[in-house]
Amino acid sequence: MIYRNAxxxxxxxxxxxxxxxxxxxxxxxxxxxxxxxxxxxxGTQASDDIVVTAQRRxxxxxxxxxxxxxxxxxxxESRDISSLDQIGxxxxxxxxxxxxxxxxxxxIAIRGSVTINPxxxxxxxxxxxxxxxxxxxxxxxxxxxxDLERVEVLRGPQGTLYGRNTLAGAVSLVTKKPTxxxxxxxxxxxxxxxxxxxxxxxxxxxxxxxxxxLSGQVKKRDGMVETVPNPYPQxxxxxxxxxxxxxxxxxxxxxxxxxxxxxxxxxxxxxxDHSKTDQRPQNSQLVRVNRNGDPRDIFDPSSxxxxxxxxxxxxxxxxxxxxxxxxxxxxxxxxxxxxxxHALTAEYKLGEVSLKSITAWRAMTFDDSLDLDGSPxxxxxxxxxxxxxxxxxxxxxxxxxxPLSYVLGGYYFRDSGGTINxxxxxxxxxxxxxxxxxxxxxxxxxGQVDWKILPNFTLTGGLRYSQESKNITRLFRILASPxxxxxxxxxxxLNVQKGDVPDAKFHAWxxxxxxxxxxxxxxxxxxxxxxxxxxGGFNGETSSLAELLQPYKxxxxxxxxxxxxxxxxxxxLTFNAALFWNxxxxxxxxxxxxxxxxxxxxxNAGAARLRGxxxxxxxxxxxxxxxxxxxxxxxxxxxxxxxxGVDVSDNRALPHAPKYNVSVGTDWSPYNGSAxxxxxxxxxxxVSSYFTYPYPLRAALPSDQxxxxxxxxxxTIVNLRAALTRIxxxxxxxxxxxxxxxxxxxxxxxxxxxxxxxxxxxxVAYFNEPATYGMTLGVRF
Length: 781
What we know:
Strand content: over 45%
Distance between the termini: 52 Å
C-alpha cells in the first residue's frame, strides 16, 4: 500500500491529561508573573523588550547566548506578515523560497545549508515550529497564520534542545494567546490583480478558568500570468490552454486557541489550526533548451536527435529568458493543500520548577499538477498526490536551583506519508506510474544546564541522544515508452513493499557548549560549539533498486561561533554580531537528472566549510523613528565532493548559498495625536546571486549541465507602507493603510528546474512576483 489516509492516534493526549490531573489535585499557590507587554507607543521592534523561548524557557532576547533574531507582533502587523514565505528578510543568512512551481511548499536555507528537494521522503535542513510543535515536511508548510505574536529565527545547529533536522537552525512561529477580555480586529484588503483579503480575530470574555481566541482569514487573487492562444501555427501538436491564467491565490484558514488556567500552578493550552488552498501554481516559464547540435539536443533543429522529439515538438519556439506576463499552457494546472493541526500544551509550575507537556497531531494532503515545459505542447506533465500525518509528544522539565538553570526532556515522534507521482511526456509516448511512501519512528532524550559560576560568567553544557528508524515503499512502472515493446507493457521496474527492505536506523549525539561573559548589563559576549543532525533515509524517487537498497547517511554539522550582543545610549542602539565556522559532513545533495520519471539521486558525497559574519543593528535616534539593519557574508566551499570515485570539489556549486544578504527597514511615526497615529514604513532587502543546484561549474561538452544554467542573479526588493491607525470611530479604532510590495518591480528568477542534457537541456524558471499595491481598511474593538 503506497500511503494511508491520516488518522488521529489513540491515546494522543495521555501525557497532557496526566499533568492536568496532577495540577487539579495540587494545592494552589500565587500565580506566576508574566512579562508585561511593551507600550504600543514604543518602537516597532525594540529587541530589548522581546521575550523569546529560543532555549525552551523565557529569556530576554539580548541575554540569549546564541544567534537568534526575533520580531514581535507590532513588527508583523505593521508589515502584514502572516506566512512563512514573507519573513525571509528578517534575519541575516536566512533565505526562504517557494520550491519550483509551488506556492505552499517551502525551501528554507540558513548559513548555506538547505534541502532543495521537497519530496515527502526527504528531511528539511531547517526545523519549522508552530507553538512548539514540529512541522516535519516542506509540502504544505507555507500556510497563513492570522494572529502571530512573534517569529524567532535561530541560526546555527539546534541539535540539543530541538533535535533532528535542525542542522542549519530553526524557525519558530508563536501565536498570540487569549487575553480573556473581549476584543479583536477585522480588516479587509484590496489590491491589483484583483487581490482580496479578509482577516480577523476575536478574544472572547473569560468564562471561569477558560479564555478563547478565534482567528481566520480568506485570500483571493487573480492569476499573475494570463494564458493566450498558441502563437506558432507550425507547432501543429499544440493544444488549447487548460486554464485562463496561472499563479492565482485562493486560500482560507482558521484557528482556535483555548487557554485553561485551571489552578495557579496549571495552565493548559489547546491550539487548533486548519488551512486550505485550491489555486493554480506558479508559471513554469521556459528559459532555455540546448542549441549546440549535440545528438542529445532533442529540441534543436540542427541536432540529429531533433527527428525524435523536435520534429513534432518544436519547443525552442517558446524560449523566453525574461519574465513574461502571458503564456500558452496545455497541462492540467492545480495546487491544492489542506493542513490540520491539533496541539495540547500543559504546564505545571511548582516554585522554580515547571513541567511541560506538548502533544500534537498534524495531517496534510497535497495535490498538484504542473506543466513543466512552459508551452502548449504536451512535452512534460507531472502530478503529485501526497498524504501525510504525524504525531509527537514532548516532555520538558525546566527549573533552576542556586547557580544552576536547566532544561531536561524526552521526545517521541512518528509519521507516515506517501506520494503518487504520475508523469506523462511527449504526448503520452512516455508515461510513468511512480509511487513512494515512508514511515518514521524517532525517540530522543536531552538536557541542557546553565551554571552561573560568577555573577557575569556562565557555562552552558547540553547533550541530546536521538534514535530513529525509517522504512520505504516504492512502485515504479513504465506504462508507455518507445524503448519498450508494447507487448512488454506495463513494465514494473520496482515494486518494493513495506518490509521488503530492512529499516534504515540512525542515531546521533548532538552536544552544545557555550561560555557567556557579561562585562556589563548591556553587553553579552559568548563562544559556542554545537552539532546539528539531519536524518538520513531512502530516496523514494529513484528507479534504481541498488540505490533504494542503500539508504543515504545522516548529515552532520559541527559549528563554532563567537557572538556579541550589546545595547547603548540608554537602549536606543542595539548592535549584535556573530562569527561562525561550520564544518558539514555527509552532505545530502539531491541531483536532479531529468531521466526515468524525472528522478533525482542522493549523494552523501560532500564535506563543506561554511563560514561567515552576521551583523544586526536597531537604532532609535528619536522616539518616533527606528532604523533596523542587518548584513551577512557567507563564504561557502566544498572540501570534498566525490562523484564517480573522483573528488570534484573544485567543480561543484553549493546551492542556495548567496554570498551577501542585506536588509534595511525604517519605521517613522511623524504624527501621533487625537486623529490617530501615522506610520511610514520602508523596507529594502538584497540577496546576491546564488546557484540553485549542486551542478558542475565547468562542463566538458557545450550541452552538458552546469550550475550557471540555473543561477539566480539575486534580487533587491523594496516594500513601502503608510498607515493611519487608532482613528477614533464611535468607541472603536479605525485603521487605513496603503502599501506597495516590490515597488521597483524586480522580477529576477528566484528558482529553476533544469532537466539537463538527458532531456534536451529543458530549463524552466520561476520569477519574483511583480509590483503589487493596494489598500487595507480595519477596525479594532
